[in-house]
Fold:
Amino acid sequence: MKNVLVYCRQGFEKDCAAELSEVASNKGFYGYAKVVPDAGYVVYNFDQADAGEALIQQLNFNRLIFARQIVAVNDVIELEQGGRVESLLEAARELPLAEEIWIETADTNEAKALSNLIKKLEKPLREGWKKSGVLRNKAVGVRHHVFMLDGEAAYLGVSYAACRSEFPMGIRRLRFPAAGPSRSTLKLEEAFLQFVPEQAREADLTEGMTAVDLGAAPGGWTYQFVKKGIHVIAIDNGPMQKELMSTGLVQHEKADGFKFEPPYTVDWLVCDMVERPMKVAELMAKWLASGWTRRAIFNLKLPMKKRYQEVSLCLQAIDDLLRKAGVSYHYQVKHLYHDREEVTVCIMVR
Structure:
């Protein structure tokens, strides 16, 4: 596989391409991106025959900001009506063996029109893959992806468990809780699921911990802590949801989130304030460098242009401040499905 196909949110293709270009060049891979505005995906082309596979096997998925899914592919496959399965299966014989196959599209209204065709193709595709021996249980962690562009063309590629999303189209869909104070609660729920591995949640998200929520009202992010039995100091001049306050787990402080200092070190700091991304980044770094928190999840609200460059500047500023303070840390960053014009960052002090 010589190229890389990345799914992203519609409208973020240029940012996805800019990120992939830098990431690839840092690993010694050079090529060019095919960017179609509002397509919901980007294809990055390389000269080396195996560059796509070689690159994705070196990446950390939770540090690929704008990638919802990442797949190594070759060129577009032209599909003949009535012979689509055969065309794809012929190309699949050139791929590594896989344990499963997914059929997907971009997350756009135009691509959703293909849903009926995909339903018709799913069963014969899977049967064809099995009969041909392309699918094998022993091919653990390898997945084939058919990415339909329209009824006449598709990309066929491969992903590896070490660097990919485990959700179709790279989308983790969550249900809004009836007791949730605001829809923003889904952003923090998704962040916890994305950034805190299941095996670590008992240590990192457990009853009796303490958290600070900057810009908390009406309590969407606070709600995620409260339902886990975690005590929250909610900082906001606005009102908090009454049901949250009645739990006895929330201490509401009417204060400026940029001036508040905690009375003791807390386990978590979260922040979803609408402010310049660099200002928020510097505030988060201050908390971590001062030892006021051990973990932080926060959103960076992005400008309309050069969004990848803005995030990179913020992450560099955080790194500079924490290194100066002698703080060792691990970070993850993602444009989550429930984010809009923002990205979510998770930092944990080692």
